[in-house]
Amino acid sequence: MRRRHFLAGILLAATPATAQSPAAVPGAPATLNDDLKVRFVAQAHDDLVASKLVGLSIRNSANETVGSVADVVFDDKRGIKSYVVSVGGFLGLNAKYVAVAPDTLQLNRKDGGTLDAVIETDRDQLRAAPEYVYLGSEPSKK
């Protein structure tokens, strides 16, 4: 009998009270002194997303594919400093990376919104350009 009353007491304690529910309390700020000022931004139709740039084929005015966008380099003010272009190679193997100024790569949207990248050069000029070497991955000097 005691066991039955004990189990009934546990069940009553675990059942939420429906007669009185507390009023909703607004959430507290993320910091105690309320200095966090997060701004949220919605994507606009004409925004350019970096993830759509990486891997994008680049062609020249003769409609030849001369490379692809491998990376985007930002300066200390978070503006685009250069586009890293992958030239040559096959499926990313033995590719050479060169950095081109942002004003040399024309980015446009084609019908349907897909991106189009055009550069006024040919594959040979890109292959002859100085190689872009990521800091920390320079070849060791012996």
From TrEMBL:
Claim: Lyase is one of the keywords in the record: no
One Pfam family from the record: PRC
Keywords: Signal
Source organism superkingdom: Bacteria
All residue ranges annotated as the PRC-barrel domain in the record: 50-103
InterPro entries tied to this protein: PRC-brl_dom, PRC_barrel-like_sf
Signal peptide feature range: 1-19
Protein name: Sporulation protein YlmC with PRC-barrel domain
Taxonomic lineage: Bacteria, Pseudomonadati, Pseudomonadota, Alphaproteobacteria, Hyphomicrobiales
